[in-house]
Amino acid sequence: MDSEIPQLLGVSKAVLENVIFCHQEDSYWPLAEPSVLKKKFDDIFEATRYTKALNSIKDLRKDRVAELKAEKERLIGLSREKQHLDKLLGRINDAQTEISLKESEYETAKEDHDRLAEDNRKFYELNSKFREIYKEVENLEKLKARSQQDLEDARVGNFEELPGTDEELALKMSQFSQHIEAQRQVLLREERKKQDAEEDITGLRDQHTDLLSKKGRLSAEAEAHRTRISERENLIRESGKQYNISVPEQKLERDAVVQFMSQIADLQRKHKAEFEQLQADLSEKSNDYFAKIRKLENESQAFKTQRQTLHGQVQERNTSIRNSERQLNGQATLEMTLASTKEEIEEKRSRVEKIRSDIGAAKYDEKMFEKSEQARQLEEKRDVLLEESRALSMQADSRAKLDLKRAEIKAKTSEMQSTQTTISFKFEELAHRQPNPESIQEEIASLLLSKNEEAEETERDAGAAKLAYQQVEKGLADTKADISVKQRRSRELEMEIQKGLKEGEVEAKTVDDAIAEATGELEECKNRQNVSVGSSGVFTTILKTGRQKKICLACNRGLEDDQLEKFETHVRDLMRKSSKEDPDQLKADMKVWQKELDGYNKLKEKEKERTKILDEELPALKAQLAELEASRPDIVSKADMLSDKLEDLKQHIASINDLRMQATTIARLQREIEKTQSEVGDIETDLSMTGSTKTVDDVQNELNEITAELRAIEKDKQNLTR
Q: Name one GO molecular function term (predicted).
């Protein structure tokens, strides 16, 4: 029965007990204590179920908001990581591009090196072959000249008649081959001795040349050593002045140098210890600094979380305040009840006074009838109101749903207006104009498209500027490296030139002077050799002609037999005087001076290379470096500006995407509000079809008034019957 009757009647158990089948003694429950009255109304209107549902909805919304905030923070963190990843990928691409450039440069340089090495090898082979051919040609030319000279001597010479009989001459002639063989053996022995002597002389000359070279090298090393010692002393004195170390003014000995070096080492260890201590302090301070940064970041994150939590709590408090306001509005009937109770009390007092004044009146029956009639009318009116209250109670669900829908419309409207205000503010900040609320999504999409196009263009410009910056940096590095290489090569050439001049046989300050002097010495040796060879040939011809024709070719005089011996003695003396110049020694001297001249010519090539480096290549490289350094600030500024602009555009795009999401939220809220308004209209239509425009509170107030009047009439009747 307890479950079937409420189901058949279509009302709740609380309505059956407190409204429909309420006993007369319990019909005064609307005048009960507030707590009992609240419980009764909660049971009738099933407010507990809706309260639990609302609490469940609030808890669910709170959880969803917290999850949304966490997801937003996670999205922000992921976006930061993605930006960092994009930067790293950009750096990796730049590094790979630079590696590719370096590899291509390496391959090109390697090919050039291999080609030059092959050319050098071929040139060396050709040079060796040319040297061999040149020596062979030189020997053949000498042999040819000697053969031609012998032929000329044979042509111009006169044959002398040998003394003796024919038998003696025939005997000599028969034995002449033996004589020639013996002389040939003697000649071979003498030539071997001569060859041995020449080899000894050549070895001694080479040894002499080596010793001279060694002497020059050792002299240069000694001079360089003295220079280094002097530079070391100057450096020691400068270091002593710098680090307050006493250094003697006289020449430093080894002990003083060792002592100074030990002091410098102690000072270095001290500075190293101080540096390590400073480095440790710096590391510790850096760790403290980063720890503070992390702590501040954590605190900032905690404050953000706390701010978000407080914001959520503020929203919850606002919702609670609105609920409390609704409850206060609902409890306004209590004030009306209190006022009616006070009026009833005043009325009862007035009735008591009136009854006291009319106690002795004669119209008692009429008054009793009048009171009964009033009570009957009030009972009928109360029955009508109870029936109307029952109908309204059956519509309690619809009315509660109507209140919820209206509250939902109000909350969503407030949220939509707040979101629209935020969007308008951010849109004005980004686009410098107010958006049209009716076409906010289209304007945001248009703004996003324009920002994306601007970002793409800026990204291309930034990439080009970055590439130009990298090219400038590469050009600066290459130019500085080339300048360093050229300067180092210039110093090396200068040292080689000075070393070659010091080690050479000629004392000269410049390469041109050394070449001129070496050329003069070589020409002098050649002239001496030519003079020696020519004089020997002339004197030999004069001697032969004098013997054969008895004529002196020098003065064209005839010679007598007694003058011939003196003539021969005089010519031999002249030949001996002219042959004091040793041909081998002259050849060796010519070889030495030719070698010196070749060395000086190589030094001349090095000097030309150094002059070209100093006068042409270095100024051009320095001008190129100055041009690159002059263009670098503009390129760097442009690259930084474009990079900052690109970052700003990315932030604007992210903000516009947020605005687009918020605009989507507004559209969703608009659809939900329209849907809820439609539902509210349907509920209001259903309620208006009942024919009653009163609310439960209005009916309850009228019931309270009727009950109060019935009580007053009942008391009047009781007073009349006393």
A: single-stranded telomeric DNA binding
CB atoms within 10 A of CB 6: 17
Please, is 585 exposed, middle or buried when counting C-beta atoms within 10 Å of its C-beta (0-12, 13-18, 19+)? middle
How far is Cα 101 from Cα 475, in angstroms, rounded to an integer? 13
What is the tens place of the pLDDT at every residue in 334-389?
555 566 677 777 777 777 777 666 655 545 566 677 777 887 888 888 777 777 76
Burial 396-417, CB ≥16 within 10 A → b, else e = bebbeebebbebebeebeeebe
Kind and range of the H or E run holding 239: helix 176-243
Residue matched to tokens 């070391």: 232
Decide if 600 contacts 514 (C-beta within 8 A).
yes
- What does the alpha-carbon distance between residue 372 and residue 368 come to, in Å, rounded to a whole number? 6
Q: Among 712, 602, 644, 652, which Cα is nearest to 340's?
A: 712
Q: What DSSP state is assigned to residue 692?
A: -
Task: Calculate the average pLDDT of the chain.
Answer: 76
pTM, two decimals, is 0.34
State the CB neighbour count (10 A cutoff) for residue 500.
20
Q: Quick check: helix, strand or coil at residue 682? A: helix
Q: What is the pLDDT of residues 458-514, one digit of tens each?
A: 888 888 888 888 888 888 888 888 888 888 888 888 888 888 877 776 677 787 877
What phi and psi values does residue 28 have, to the nearest 5 degrees? -95, 15
